[in-house]
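Private note to self, pasted from the team thread so I don't lose it. Backbone tokens:
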């Protein structure tokens, strides 16, 4: 487990990326063939990961990714978070998803697997768009 007084450089980078999300992400911490999965999508490759973040930058307004916790044990990092954004619909719904991320590192400390687990269903996220 990381020293609670002084996080590892990788944990510091991830923490900063959450604070800046979705802008100025540190893609260099990801392996070229990184595997990504969440309840809506699954793919492999850093280029696809960058496209997904660009999509979020373009279509999700006022995105905020609040880090609730982060810990590392060996080659695994787990974060707890709350993601929120405003969808650019005429009534501007504010969407919120809580969940956690499980990352696995290779021997070079690059993220080779990034799996997001939501505390709600994709259906409940869709429903948030229609609560006025």
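Design output:
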């Amino acid at each position: 487990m990381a020293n609670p007084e002084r996080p590892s450089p990788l944990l510091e980078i991830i923490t900063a990326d959450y604070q800046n999300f979705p802008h100025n992400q540190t893609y260099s911490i990801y392996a070229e063939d990184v595997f990504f999965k969440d309840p809506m999508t699954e793919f492999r490759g850093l280029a696809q990961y960058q496209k997904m973040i660009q999509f979020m930058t373009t279509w999700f307004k006022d995105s905020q990714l609040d880090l609730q916790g982060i810990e590392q044990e060996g080659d695994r990092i787990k974060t707890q978070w709350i993601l929120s954004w405003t969808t650019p619909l005429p009534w501007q719904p504010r969407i919120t998803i809580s969940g956690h991320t499980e990352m696995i590192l290779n021997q070079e400390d690059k993220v080779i697997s990034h799996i997001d687990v939501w505390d709600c269903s994709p259906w409940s996220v869709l429903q948030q768009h229609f609560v006025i």
